[in-house]
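ok here's Structural maintenance of chromosomes flexible hinge domain-containing protein 1:
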Amino acid sequence: FGIASDENFVITTTNRKEITEDNFSELVQDGVTLYLLQSVDQMLLSATKERIDFLPHYDTLVKSGMYEYYASEGQNPLPFALAELIDNSLSATSRNTAIRSIQIKLLFDDSQGKPAVAVIDNGRGMTSKQLNNWAVYRLSKFTRQGDFESDHSGYVRPLPVPRSLNSDISYFGVGGKQAVFFVGQSARMISKPADSQDVHELVLSKEDF
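and the structure:
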């Protein structure tokens, strides 16, 4: 890497966890992306890309939402699709000590691109690993497997209180990815973890597939 013998550096995960002798076997797995930095909190000078691999045919994602929601007999499926997206924000803001802010915006300005639905919150954000897991079809927020890092890490199913308050409104739903592809044909997730200076972005697109 062209590092001088007297220069200090650290190797970290994309979540800015420093790789040490003690945690090497835990954090360094096949396919993991690592940063070589001068310090753990070093600013990145340019955007980096991390490859996400998953096997399902694109129809599994793109058409599953259409199938799942149109199968809701006698009901208008759009509110259920929006509820899935809002549920993600409810979960992300569940630990906020300040005001929880969740906005739903319908964007129709052609100068900004194609029409879109934007759900914006001030929650704790997702790491690159959590965004990776979000991209995996039918990976439940209730799943716990070893060092698996869910997009709802630390989630505990809440006590029976109004579901609009407890981030459990999509428990009987079909998931955010199906909701996205019911509403449109692409998804852009932009997230900054609360304890990190890095902004992570994930794009899933029928056109790209």
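+1. Residues 142-156 have pLDDT under 50 and may be disordered.
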